[in-house]
Task: structure prediction
Amino acid sequence: MKKKKEDDQKKEFEDLKKEKIELIDQLQRLQAEFENYKKRTDKENQRFRECAKKDMVAALLPIVDSFESSLKHKDKPEEYIKGTEMIFTQLSQLLKKEGLSRIECLGKRFNPYEHEVMLVEEGEKEDDLILDEFQSGYKFKDLIIRHAKVKISKKKDDANDNKNDKAERYTERQA
Result:
């Protein structure tokens, strides 16, 4: 009886050992398959990005042609300026078609998600009104590519001015 029990335990042990080896083998195969999947998707993503870049470069070629044509007329200022303006229009239209848009800001309220404050001007205008744009900001579809660099207003606080005037007069008298 004891011998049978021992044999059963040995058989169960061998079965468990075999199952463990099979599970480890299965796990290793799954890991290898997953690594291959990651490599394949990375390669596909890289290829997709290259195709997108190729399409954009192909769309820019007419603009390069226009630059070459414009440079041939650099000795004729009026034609050169006209050509440069046409190139700017071509480029702007292409970028707009691809999803680029300029962030409009003059006269609008400051938005920290779209604007970067470079200067604050104290005056009679309401707080956070954009007074000047130093550099345009751009969005690509809904993503901010570059914040607009702006000057905003800060309403002059008359109460603080009176306190500052009094403080200045007091220090002048003390001196």
Q: What stands out?
A: The chain has two domains: 1-98, 101-157.
